[in-house]
Design a protein that fits this description.
Largest sheet: 8 strands, mixed
CATH class: Alpha Beta
Strand order of the largest sheet: 1-2-6-5-4-3-7-8
Radius of gyration: 16 Å
Structural class: alpha/beta
Number of domains: 1
CATH topology: Rossmann fold
């Protein structure tokens, strides 16, 4: 499957990116899969990398509910908990949008467990990066802002106080995007 490039001036470029990100909106997007999935209502899924042990079991239940409710989920699916959610989502039939942490090129390797969903038109790979570069905190921040900007609601599995997921949730609230937390925030539990 070939990737498609959408540039900012194109009519198919999501205008919500320019509205929410302003000058930080990417100049172009690379897509692989059904681009129509970008027009669907999307729930962004975020979880901090470090989280309490019970978060994973709660996340599995949540992911199964998203499958059962046929919710279109968008995420970077980068943290261990997000990756586990993706594994469960791939077992369903609902649409999934994966926002990559690097440029999408013709040589990008697609994991075997993604290929069936991609071939069936229910998985869309998106990159907001023009050039291949090594993933770091800055690219993760940009990708997470991009995910939030494309979403209609945000689901926080766990946000470490002062961490990047908490900052993304604050940014999304500023844009008027509803967000929900699936459990107590770490600081409410008295943990660090």
């Amino acid at each position: 499957m070939n990737s498609v490039i959408i540039k900012s001036p194109d009519s198919s470029y999501p205008p919500i990116l320019r509205q929410r990100l302003g000058e930080r909106a990417p100049n172009m997007l690379s897509l692989m899969g059904d681009a129509a999935l970008l027009a669907r209502p999307k729930t962004a899924l975020f979880c901090s990398t470090s989280c309490p042990d019970e978060t994973l079991s709660r996340a599995r239940l949540l992911a199964q509910k998203l499958v059962d409710d046929s919710v279109t989920v968008i995420s970077g699916f980068h943290s261990p908990v997000e990756k586990e959610c993706l594994r469960i989502l791939l077992g369903g039939t609902q649409p999934i949008v994966v926002c990559l942490l690097r440029a999408l090129t013709q040589t990008t390797r697609i994991p075997a467990d993604w290929q069936t969903a991609l071939d069936s038109g229910r998985l869309l790979l998106v990159s907001c990066f023009e050039k291949p570069r090594r993933p770091d905190r800055e690219t993760a921040r940009k990708r997470n802002e991009f995910v939030a900007a494309l979403s209609d609601e945000i689901l926080i599995i766990h946000a470490k106080p002062g961490g990047s997921v908490e900052r993304i949730a604050e940014m999304a609230r500023g844009w008027g995007i509803p967000s929900a937390e699936t459990g107590p925030v770490e600081q409410n539990q008295g943990r660090s």
